[in-house]
Design brief:
Blueprint: E1 3-6, E2 14-17, H1 26-46, H2 59-62, E3 65-72, E4 85-88, E5 101-105, H3 109-118, E6 125-130, H4 131-137, H5 141-149, E7 153-157, H6 164-168, H7 170-173, E8 181-183, H8 193-204, E9 206-209, E10 216-223, H9 228-245, E11 254-260, E12 267-271, H10 284-329, H11 343-371, H12 378-389
Parallel strand pairs: 5-6, 5-7, 7-8
Antiparallel strand pairs: 1-2, 3-10, 3-11, 4-9, 11-12
Helix pairs in contact: 1-9, 11-12
Protein name: Proteasome-interacting protein cic1
Keywords: Proteasome
InterPro entries: eL8/uL1-like, Ribosomal_uL1-like, Ribosomal_uL1/biogenesis, Ribosomal_uL1_3-a/b-sand
């Protein structure tokens, strides 16, 4: 009897009989693909929702995308990851002749521009931007949106990919269509034209899995102009990579796989027979133990709240007593404060005192002259005083 290979993360591949439910039925995938393509073609003929971006000269860029939807029993990832996972496709969604690529790199920019020319990739990689030029020239929302619309694929040096969300913003990260794809230029060896060409070919010939903290994810697996057989091969490649590397517990962690177009219903191609495992079901003893644990936790939280309330009340009471004690010890203050004396007022009082002293001296001198028996005026008295002094 034929066998199939089932792998789980961290475990060796295991041989599973071909009649095992934990594998993809290609006949079912082919049937769903034919029905989905027939629906898309029928929509185009009836003109229910015409594709306004359709271009007969470039069908790669205008054909509707076929998606693979994965639903899992548990979260695939605990956080949203900025670096998407790369999955090689037997039938790529884009080609080098129909795609334009923008390469975002570290400084200096000139080094990578020379590498693009040396690798004969000028027709594919039409723009090279360094991180410093990205900061300087693309600060506004309009400039970032124009950059996003100017290229089909954006490649980014893996060493700077974590800096790009703050520099590119919503036009690139609101959807996964134009999210920059990390290219591995790390390592002690210098980047060569051959290495750049290989990374570019791998980027064009792959699809990408963007993981987030959820129990579902969607991956592009084809276009509406593909044949059903091409979609089956791409779906098989993506499912194998997801189950082997991304889904916790492998096939046993998968709930379902569906394929769909943007305007169609999701067609199932695989669904699990058990929605939960034995370890997910609580036995009576486990339920009692869980109830006891929950009650103990609740009691502990209540006790902590009571302790905090008592501490708060004690603090308020001690603070009030301290304020009363300070008010009793504080000396009685006067109802008014003396007005501050200005410097000009002090100087004017000093001048008045000096004038009064001078006037007293004059009166004393005049009295001396009068006491001598002379009938003179004040001026004469002053003259006499002066002569006497001489």
């Amino acid at each position: 009897m034929a066998t199939a290979i089932v792998t789980e993360p961290g475990k060796a591949a295991a041989q599973v009989p071909s009649n095992s439910p934990y594998q993809l039925d290609k006949a079912q995938v082919l049937k769903a693909s034919r029905a989905l393509l027939k629906f898309v073609v029928g929509q185009e003929k009836t003109g229910a929702k015409p594709n306004l971006l359709a271009d007969a000269d470039e069908p790669d860029n205008s054909a509707e995308t076929i998606w693979l939807n994965l639903a899992t029993k548990k979260f695939i990832s605990d956080v949203k990851r900025l670096k998407p996972s790369q999955v090689a496709l037997p039938h790529p969604l884009r080609t080098a002749t129909s795609s334009t690529i923008c390469l975002i790199v570290k400084d200096p920019q000139r080094t990578f521009k020379d590498l693009v020319v040396s690798a004969s990739l000028s027709a594919t990689i039409t723009k090279v931007i360094s991180i410093s030029k990205l900061r300087a020239k693309f600060r506004t929302f309009e400039s970032r949106r124009a950059l996003c619309a100017s290229h089909d694929i954006f490649l980014a040096d893996s060493r700077i990919v974590r800096m790009l969300p703050a520099l590119l913003g919503k036009p690139f990260y609101s959807r996964t269509v134009k999210t920059p794809i990390p290219v591995n230029f790390e390592g002690p060896k210098a980047v060569t034209p051959a290495r750049l060409a290989a990374e570019t070919r791998a980027a064009i010939g792959s699809t990408y899995v963007h993981l987030s903290a959820s129990a579902s994810t969607s991956v592009r697996v084809g276009r509406a102009d593909f044949t059903p057989e091409q979609i089956v091969e791409n779906v098989d490649a993506v499912v194998t990579a997801l189950v082997a590397k991304k889904v916790p517990a492998g096939w046993r962690g998968v709930r379902s796989f569906h394929i769909k177009s943007p305007n169609s219903a999701a067609l199932p191609i695989w669904m699990t027979q058990e929605l939960y495992a034995d370890e997910d079901v609580l036995r009576p003893a486990d339920e009692e133990r869980k109830a006891l644990v929950d009650a103990a936790r609740k009691e502990k939280r209540t006790a902590k709240k009571m302790v905090k309330r008592a501490q708060r009340a004690e603090f308020v009471k001690s603070r009030a007593a301290l304020n009363v004690q300070k008010e009793e010890e504080q000396p009685v203050e006067m109802d008014f404060e003396p007005a501050p004396v200005s410097k000009a007022l002090v100087q004017s009082e000093e001048r008045l005192v000096e004038r009064e002293v001078v006037a007293k001296k004059k009166r004393r001198a005049l009295g001396d002259v009068v006491d001598a028996g002379l009938d003179v005026t004040v001026k004469e008295a002053k003259k006499l005083k002066t002569k006497k002094a001489m």
